[in-house]
Design goal:
It contains 19 helices and 21 strands. An 8-stranded parallel beta barrel has the order 2-3-4-5-6-7-8-9, surrounded by 9 helices. Strands 16, 19, 20 and 21 form a 4-stranded antiparallel β-sheet that branches. By secondary structure, the chain is α/β, with parallel strands linked by helices. α3 links the parallel β4 and β5. The chain is elongated. α1 packs across α2, α5 packs parallel to α7 and α6 packs across α7.
């Protein structure tokens, strides 16, 4: 667990600041880490029942909006699923596209240890024998050990979509399953719309299951294709299906999430006798998605009282890793609110919660975060009490209760002005550093100016459109230019101008142009994401001031107040760290400036501490009353710029402060 790593002015590991808001689930100020895991079923006495997981991320998952996986992506995910111990990996539909054909060719070259690869297909077409149906032949050409064949169970679909009789539908199912099984493949029959079909025509729905079982299917999947069935109904109908097909054929369940019940329905099906659960990683898929196998695995492994076993013994603590890996490969933004594995799954914001967590973690957590590979986080906000702040500041070596109170007061004041620190770990770290009186600014703003010029789409001297312009509202050329004038320690000044692709990029470029000659380590800092939103504030909050109450940060207009909040994500190339900073202002440029300055100062202050560690001494402690004298001394002597600022420049000799800009 975190043991109060020192902060900026103290010696610390570079990696320690990767998670300035993270508090681990063992040891430290958060208590003993005792578990209060609750279970949804005790299960039958005796040995745990084995539940197999059938992953269809590579096929059903890619039907989700905005989701596309390359061949390389699919193979990489397949290897990871196999490493986790998944029982089945459905690779795709070999008749639909060349990429899926190539997948089945190349997956055979992988050394899979646990998983069986399945190919997906449909029953033969009407009026064509299975041996002459191209879909059936494509399944065999895939050489997949398991072939999953989907067929119609709902009489409405049989009559109105397939346009065949109920009898011919049964023949299509039996012919298709029988042909593939006779070719030496294991067959799973997917009973599409089973639950809707059963309620519409119970006799035909059960007849389709019996036809598939009699033809050689080793397993039958009951599909809640429309995602509208309730858990109690799922449990009842699964029991009916298990009895109908007999013990020789296993029953699977395949649920969609249109009523936000896919996980609950899958668990209900397992309770009723299903032994295989189909789904996707993170629940990705068409419409509202599929059953989330990550949540299902966690529930079955950790909430069943030992009634079920699945995956491999080492897999459940790696569920968070798997979830984020698939999001990364699929280029998806992780769902912070995802159960078990989301970044917010074990995040605590209310002060009362944090206080209780410090005494007993199980008071507000249903299981220890590390059982699924996640971590506990204590958030900072206007809702925070001293317990939240104490937990967070302890990670920076803060033990003084007065400093904790000062941080809490500052956070609450700033959040009333529109700031938010939950997603701005680096900005919060700077707040703590300033409260500890060990922060020295590396530069100060004298002024900046940003100009945006647009050249219209009408050609000069004519009424014709430029060919590159869409219409008169579009600019043929846009130019953003920023000018900054900064004061540096030791009395120097920098006055620079730069252009950029937009006003914020121009401002960033001008800042770098002014600062990199003095702080070359800023070349390692890269902006990776930028988010902006308008924040509406109550009039009371708008009257606050930035920086000691000198000037109002926001202006009340017509009885309302608003502010612009900008969050910038940055990456330090030298350490591979990522961090976020926040800025708030009356306009987007000022808000962006403040977020940029925090990012630069965080990087430089952290590097100062690393340099102090390399020099082999602790930075001096500063009493609260001496902080202004410390600032003045640093700015007079230029001490902050007399040493290289990170390990990459450790071999460089200390440089004197630059001369004033006018002298240069």
């Amino acid at each position: 667990g975190t043991q109060g790593e020192a902060f900026f002015g103290d010696c610390f590991s570079v990696m320690a600041l990767r998670s300035v808001l993270r508090v681990h689930s063992r040891g430290g100020v958060l208590g003993t880490g005792r578990s209060a895991t609750r279970t949804f079923s005790s299960g039958a006495a005796g040995a745990a029942r084995r539940i197999k997981l059938y992953d269809t991320t590579l096929r059903d998952g890619t039907q989700g909006e905005g989701i596309s996986l390359s061949l390389h992506d699919k193979l990489a995910i397949a290897e990871r699923l196999d490493d986790m111990g998944f029982d089945y990996i459905e690779g795709g539909y070999p008749l639909s596209n060349e990429k899926d054909v190539a997948f089945f060719e190349q997956v055979r070259r992988l050394s899979l240890r646990h998983a069986t690869v399945a190919a997906f297909g449909m029953t033969r077409r009407k009026g064509i024998s299975a041996s002459n149906d191209e879909g059936m032949l494509a399944l065999l050409r895939s050489e997949a050990e398991v072939c999953t064949i989907v067929g119609k169970t709902w009489d409405f679909h049989v009559r109105d979509v397939l346009r065949v009789s109920l009898e011919e539908n049964l023949e299509m199912i039996a012919d298709s399953v029988g042909f593939v099984a006779a070719s030496g493949r294991r067959v799973v029959y997917d009973a599409e719309h089973f639950f809707d079909g059963f309620l519409a025509n119970q006799e035909h729905a059960l007849a389709t299951l019996r036809a598939a079982a009699a033809a050689g299917a080793e397993s039958i999947a009951l599909c809640d294709t429309n995602g509208g069935t309730m858990p109690a109904e799922v449990e009842r109908l699964v029991r009916v299906a298990v009895e109908a097909v007999g013990p020789a054929v296993s029953v699977q369940v395949h649920c969609h999430n249109d009523c936000a019940l896919a996980v609950a329905n899958s668990l209900a099906a397992v309770s009723a006798g299903a032994s295989v659960v189909q789904g996707t990683i993170n629940g990705i898929g068409e419409r509202c998605g599929n059953a989330d196998l990550v949540s299902i695995a966690a529930c079955l492994a950790l909430k069943s009282g030992g009634a079920y076993s699945l995956l491999t013994p080492q897999s459940v603590p790696r569920l968070t890793e798997l979830s984020r890996y698939v999001d990364d490969v699929a280029n998806l933004t992780p769902n912070n609110g995802a159960p078990f594995v989301g970044r917010s799954a074990f995040a605590h914001k209310g002060g009362m919660h944090a206080h209780a967590m410090a005494l007993a973690p199980e008071s507000y957590e249903h299981l220890p975060p590390d059982t699924v590979g996640n971590t506990r986080r204590v958030l900072v906000s206007e809702l925070s009490g001293k317990s939240n702040i104490a937990a967070l500041t302890s990670t920076h070596g803060v033990v003084d209760s007065e400093v904790t109170k000062a941080v809490l007061a500052e956070v609450q004041r700033r959040e009333a002005l529109g700031y938010q620190y939950e997603a701005a770990d680096a900005s919060f770290a700077l707040v703590v550093s300033k409260a500890m009186r060990n922060f020295t600014p590396h530069f100060k703003r004298i002024r900046y100016q940003v100009e945006v010029s647009g050249y219209g789409s009408i050609r000069h001297g004519s009424n014709t459109y430029a060919r590159s312009a869409v219409d008169a509202s579009h600019m043929e050329y846009e130019r953003s230019e920023a000018t900054v004038k900064l004061a540096l320690p030791g009395g120097g000044y920098m006055h620079e101008v730069a252009e950029g692709n937009g006003p914020v990029a121009a401002l960033d470029a001008a800042l770098r142009k002014a600062l990199e000659p003095t702080y070359p380590n800023l070349q390692d800092l890269h902006l990776t994401d930028y988010k902006v939103r308008v924040v509406r504030l109550p009039e009371g909050g708008a009257a606050g001031a930035e920086g000691g109450g000198a000037a109002p940060l926001h202006t009340v207009i017509a009885g309302t107040a608003s502010a612009i909040r900008v969050i910038i994500d940055s990456r330090d190339r030298a350490t591979a760290e990522t961090f976020s900073t926040v800025g708030v202002g009356t306009n987007i440029i000022e808000a962006s400036w403040r977020a940029l300055v925090d990012a630069f100062e965080y990087k430089l202050s952290r590097d100062d501490a690393v340099w102090a560690q390399l020099e082999g001494h602790e930075p001096e402690a500063v009493e609260a009353g001496d902080v202004e004298a410390r600032f003045a001394a640093d700015w007079k002597t230029g001490r902050s710029v007399q040493r290289p600022a990170n390990a990459r420049h450790a071999a460089a000799q200390p440089q004197p402060p630059p001369p004033p800009f006018e002298a240069r």
